[in-house]
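Fold this sequence, please.
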Amino acid sequence: MNIEDYKDVFEPFERLIEIEICGEKRLVPENNSLLRCFQFLSLETISYGNFCWNGDCLNCRVWVKNGEREKAVVSCRTKARDQMKIVRISEEIILTKN
């Protein structure tokens, strides 16, 4: 993917940060929602997925581990943080492998 072709899709970013998705470390753009980060990783499956992008449908729900606790969040309204650990994702979120 040439990121310049999609710069109007993503929030401005200067670097990639590392997050963990179901045990796999991935690099995603800082300053973006998790759903946009998933789109960065898998442009077609997320772009054409069944997501409302505003938090109403809950199809983009993920479970984030914070210490010993897990918390369900909607990825369209949650910003990615460096070293974030996502332990489970909704079945609607289909990510292609690197």
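The chain has one domain: 3-89. The helical segments are 34-41, 43-47.
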